[in-house]
Amino acid sequence: MDYRNHTCDGCGRRFTQEDDIVVCPVCATPQHRACYEANGHCVNEDKHESGFVWQQQSIDQAPKTDAALTPCPVCGFENRKDARLCIHCGAPLGAAPAPQPVPQANCDLFYDVTKPDGFELDDDERDQLETLLRQRAALAAPGMQPDQEQEQIAGHPIKQVLTFVGSNALKYLQKFRKIENGQKAGWNWAAFFLSPYWFFYRKMYRPGIVFLTLRLCLMLLLFPYENKALELYQSLYANAANLSENAIQTALQEIFQTLIPVYIGGAVLVILAVLSALLADRLYYSYVRRSIDSAKQQETRDTVLMQFLKRGGVSPLMAVLSYAAVSLIPNLILSFFN
Asked: Per-domain residue ranges for the chain?
């Protein structure tokens, strides 16, 4: 029998072609299987003793669903007006709604934490920071569906991680997934060519300082050899016309011998760059995880927001300053001792 356009006595909704319908063997009442299972029996069982038999209704006779439905206070599913339990979630109809989390700083992003309001920011400052955070989230995770946003990566919802990373967020999402799947080491071309500046760009100041210090120490050790080789070359160039071929060959060999430590230092710099490239993704993964943990441990919604913005994203300024330090510090130190 075709029950389409007839209503279910359990929930008041009209049957469709896709519905799973069961028919009571006593009174012939059609009802959704979910309605039958929610009640544990036919929805008209209380009428069986009176000899009730379900009668097919025409479409015009069917009750209007808008007037016959009441929403569940917990899940929002619309049930029949006289139903006692929601057929969708089983909650008693008329019960108080389930408690909801306290709204957070940019609740779309921090739905998984509950913090009291803070007093560190005034309303205008808070609105500006929340707007900035929404913009970052829109750029980092365009078109992401709600079910995708709640997936976990680096121990946190994926949308939080993408927003924290900012630039090239989707690329690092793929890298983080590989790390969680057991990849021991990756390769980061930016860290290879731009170490240690890349670490400062990503606000990873501790590894950045380590690699910068190693680079500076190496440059300071090599500077005397470079300076001596330059002096020998300038002397050879100035006196080449007055020197014999054997003298020139001897001078060139001396220059080469002087530059051997420089060649070794260059190889060490390449090794440091390779090490940076191999460790960069895993170090960044750990940094992201720790930083979001730290932000969520703050006491108020304002400090959560400020800590997240402070440690997330990128810092071109710090990358430039670290490059300037590598360029200027060796010269300043040597000029001081000279």
From this structure: 1-99, 138-337
